[in-house]
Structure formats: C-alpha cells, structure tokens
Automatic annotation (TrEMBL):
Annotated signal sequence range: none
Localization in the cell: Membrane
Domain Major facilitator superfamily (MFS) profile residue range list: 12-419
PROSITE patterns: MFS (PS50850)
Record-linked Pfam families: MFS_1 (PF07690)
Recorded topology in the membrane: Multi-pass membrane protein
Protein's name in the database: Major facilitator superfamily (MFS) profile domain-containing protein
Transmembrane segment boundaries: 12-35, 47-66, 78-97, 103-128, 135-155, 167-187, 237-257, 298-320, 326-347, 359-387, 393-413
Keywords noted in UniProt: Membrane, Transmembrane, Transmembrane helix
Gene Ontology molecular function: any one: monocarboxylic acid transmembrane transporter activity
Length: 425
C-alpha cells in the first residue's frame, strides 16, 4: 500500500508540474503577441519594453537561490500556492498600468510569483526521481511546450476581441489555477525530509558565543543556505555556470521578439502569431522525444546539448537570408523551437553528468537558474537595443546566433577542463 501510494504521488507530482509549466510558459510566450499593442499603449521604446517583459521570467529565476532553498526547508506546496496567487495579482494589476515604470513593478511581482511556483518543481523532481530525472523532467516540461504552442493564438484572438488589457485580465484568471495545482501536489517524504533536516541543521549547528563570531557564522550559514558557497568551494564550476546566462539571453530574446520580428518584415499579425505556434510544435515534439533518448542512454545529455546548440547557431544565422519568406520563417521557427525546447531543459542533466560526483548538482541548478534569469534580462535589452539602433531585427537574431556559438564553445571547454581535472586527481 505504501509503495502504491508513493507511486501515485509521484505520478501526480509529474502531472501537476506539467500543468504548472503549461500555464507559466504559455502566458510568458503570449507576451510576444501583446508586445506591439502594449508598446503603442504605453509609449515606450522597444528596448525598454523588451527589458521589462524579459524581466518577468528572469526575475523568477534570479530569485532561485531564495525560493529554491525556501522550498527545501519549509514547504514547497505552500510556495507554489503563494506563487500562483502572486501570478494572479501581478497579471491583474498589469491590466491597469499606464506607463513602463508601473509595468516594471507589476511584472516584478509576477516574476516573484513565477519563482515561487517554478523553482520548487525543479527541486521536487530532482529529489523524487534521482535516477530518472531526465525522463520525468522532460515529461513535465512538455506542459511548457504545449502552453507555448496553444496560448499565443488564443491570446491574439482575445487581444483582437477585448484589447490587450482585457486579454491580460483573462491571463490573470488562468494563472490562478497554479494555486490549485500546487495544492494537489503530494510530496515524496523521504528525500525531502532529509533535505529539510540537513538545511535546518546547517543554520543551527556550531553557534559560537561572542557576537563577532556569531555574525560570521550567520553570514557563512546564509551563504551556504543560498547555495553561494558552491562558487568558493568548487571554483571549477564557474566555467560551467557561464553557459547558463548565455542560454537565458538567447531564450528570452527569441521568445519575446519572434512575433514582432516577423511583423517588422511585413508578415500580417495573425500569421506572425502563428509562428509562435510553429515554434511551440517544434518545442513540444522535441521535448516529447528527447526524454526517452536520454533514459535509454542512446545519447548523453552533453552531446545532445552540443549538437542542438550548433543547429540553433546555424538557424539564427540563416534568419537574414529568410527575409520575408513566410515558409522559411516557419521552418526556422520550428527548428529554433525544437532546439530551445531541449537545450534549456537538459542543462540540469548536463550539470548532473559533469558534476554528479561533487554532490552539488542541486546547488549548481539553483545558481544556474539564477544566472539564466540574469541572462534573460540581458537578452531582452540587447535585442531591443539593436533594433532601436538599426530598425531591423536581423542584427538581433544574428547576435543570438553568435551567443549560441559561444555557448557551444564554452560547454566543450568545460567538458575538457572537467576531464583533465578528474585525470589529474
């Protein structure tokens, strides 16, 4: 009975994570459809709006050291429920903003809610499925791909019917479902309780007597609790961590500017919004296939990551040649969607392959997500600023290809450095 109950709880955990990712990534991708109406209404530059919109998801990841460790030490179910409530309030308030500064405040609140709802899913899946994490994380991630495929056309229809503010109100109502899904999650007890005990013990043991030593011990415990000690104790992971912000910059810029970039080339708004659906189909198919490839060990996560980054690089460089050819843009959107759907999702598995022996995989993932979020802000600002300077998205997409090439190079150097380090030891 205990075994059956645990298995049902694990299945429910994957299903609820699937639903949460559907809502979160679907609403995030829909900002590409809302971008031009919001810019006209708020009277702001492309760089400003791109930075603020990118900040929604990126802030949720930047706060990963805080929310991830709150989930590990307190209650992840409560984190997800509160996160769903903040998503609802943030989207609701966004429908009534009048300038870019108010939008920055409301989307910051949304980003905090996203962090509370998303990061605990990563923590729970790492703990619940240590041996088959790639498979279960990939299956749950299909919810995000499905959301990115389904939500933008629906939001485009809502925008044409009710305006972008009315569409935002409906998105707020949809996001509140995250609270219900969080309440349904049944947590695996053994590993999770072990994490709670270890983290609480790290903050309470070895308390010195004098005030100076107490402050020093508290600072040390806080750094460890936020997973920041990893950079000091294992400096060799710093090279690996540089890959994460580059991935974040590419992902955010592609997701936010895919639709505006097509409209700028003369593609009608309905057809441009459909490119998001095409990208979402590629996203969904790739996420449906790759977990089984990794689970059956037909290819390692590392080499899958490298190959798909190379594919991403070539497709971004070919964007300029596609011009206003809609079929070519559809093909590139599907390729980018498929590549982005995997590389951003298997980077935790790559970390697990390279650094599993160190015992800091979860800390690497938490810090990595923080850096991924910082990269998203950089990507949104850079792509928007290049458009403001050139009045063309071609330079923006070329820069994404360059960053994808650098990411591939850094990952190969990291693999070589890790191999040399292990052989030396």
């Amino acid at each position: 009975m205990v075994r059956v109950s645990a298995m049902e709880g694990s299945r429910l955990l994957v299903l609820t994570a699937f639903a949460i990712f559907f809502v979160e990534f679907g609403t995030l991708k829909s900002f590409g459809v809302l971008f031009n109406p919001m810019q006209d209404s708020l009277q702001c530059s492309t760089a400003q709006l791109g930075t603020v919109v990118g900040m929604t998801h990126s802030l949720g990841l930047i706060l990963a050291p805080l929310t991830g460790n709150i989930a590990r030490t307190i209650d992840s179910r409560l984190c997800v429920m509160v996160g769903g409530g903040l998503l609802f309030v943030g989207f609701l308030a966004t429908a009534f903003v009048n300038n870019i500064y108010q939008l920055a405040i409301t989307l910051s609140l949304t980003g905090f809610g996203l962090s509370l709802a998303y990061i605990p899913q990563l923590v729970l899946l790492l703990v619940a499925f240590p041996e088959r994490f790639s498979l279960m994380f990939g299956l749950a991630g299909m919810g995000g791909s499905l959301g990115m495929m389904v939500c933008p056309p629906i939001v485009d229809l809502l925008t044409m019917t009710y305006g972008w503010r009315g569409a935002m109100l409906i998105m707020a109502a949809a996001s509140f479902n995250v609270t219900a899904f969080g309440a349904m999650q049944r947590l695996p007890s053994s590993g999770y309780e072990k994490l709670k005990k270890e983290d609480i013990q790290s903050l309470s043991d070895d308390r010195p007597r004098d005030i100076r030593s107490k402050l020093s011990a508290f600072a040390s415990a806080l750094v460890q609790w936020l997973s920041m000690h990893l950079c000091i104790e294992h400096p060799k992971v710093l090279l690996h961590l540089t890959v994460w912000p580059l991935l974040g910059a590419i992902f955010a810029a592609w997701m936010v500017f895919l639709v505006p970039h097509a409209i700028a080339r003369g593609i009608p708004s309905v057809e441009a919004a459909f490119l998001s659906t095409i990208g979402g189909i590629g996203h969904l198919l790739s996420r449906a296939i790759h977990p089984f490839i990794l689970d059956r060990k037909l290819m390692s996560a590392f080499w899958m990551f490298v190959i798909l980054n190379l594919v991403n690089t070539v497709s971004f460089f070919l964007d300029y040649a596609a011009a206003d050819n809609y079929l070519a843009l559809m093909l590139l959107a599907s390729v980018n969607g498929a590549a982005e759907g995997i590389v951003n999702w298997i980077i935790p598995s790559v970390s697990k392959e390279l650094y599993e022996e160190s015992g800091y995989v979860m800390d690497i993932c938490i810090i990595g997500n923080c850096l991924f979020g910082a990269g998203e802000i950089l990507g949104g600002f850079l792509a928007g600023a290049l458009y403001d300077m050139t009045q063309s998205y071609s330079a923006s997409f070329f820069s994404l290809g360059f960053m994808a090439a650098v990411t591939t190079t850094m990952c190969l150097i990291d693999r070589l450095a890790s191999k040399c380090f292990n052989e030396t030891n």
